[in-house]
Design goal:
Blueprint: H1 6-26, H2 38-56, H3 60-65, E1 68-75, E2 83-84, H4 86-93, E3 101-116, E4 119-132, E5 140-153, E6 159-167
Length: 173
């Protein structure tokens, strides 16, 4: 059997190197740079806390909406249609002329945070309570369920929510 020529061997080595590099680029989970840094994970956890704190504040509308990218998408519970963009989110959560809704409790327990580069996700469980209307007779509601948030690092290095999905038990029939 003939030995391959030196130039053919070099071509095979180059091809092998290029193939390994291509696989490394296509499959980032195998890359040394994959995953989030501890600082990114801490910042993403802080977004969850700011989200809960925002809903519990007197200026919930501004504090909650500033955590989202301008083109963010809400995927509400029970198969409601997606809500896209800041103004649509404002109308969905803070309708003008609607009953005064006050969130009285909101907690999120994070079960998983992951991502790579400038995209991350956070999923877990939530518990929320609120009143609709004002005064002592305002009806109170409480729900618990699951959530998923996708976040993107912004040019200023902050993390903003780009997609938010939640669910809770379906309403009784």
């Amino acid at each position: 059997m003939r030995k391959p020529s030196r130039s053919k061997t070099l071509r095979l080595i180059r091809f092998g190197f290029a193939a390994v590099l291509l696989v490394d680029l296509i499959c980032p989970r195998h890359s040394r740079a994959a995953g989030l840094s501890p600082e990114d994970e801490a910042t993403i956890r802080a977004v969850s806390k700011a989200y809960c704190d925002g809903w519990l504040s007197k200026d919930a509308e501004e504090r909650v909406l500033r955590l989202f990218a301008k083109d963010a998408v809400l995927l509400p519970h029970h198969g409601l249609e997606p809500v896209t963009g800041e103004e649509a989110m404002r109308r969905f959560w803070f309708p003008k002329g609607g009953p005064v809704t006050t969130v009285t409790k909101l907690t999120q327990s994070i079960d998983e945070i992951g991502g790579s580069g400038d995209v991350a996700y956070m999923r877990g469980h939530h518990s929320v309570s609120w009143t609709s209307g004002s005064g002592p007779g305002a009806p109170a509601t409480s729900l618990s369920g699951t959530f998923l948030m996708i976040l993107r690092r912004q040019p200023d290095r902050s993390w903003r929510i780009t997609h938010h999905m939640w669910d809770d038990p379906p309403p009784p029939r």
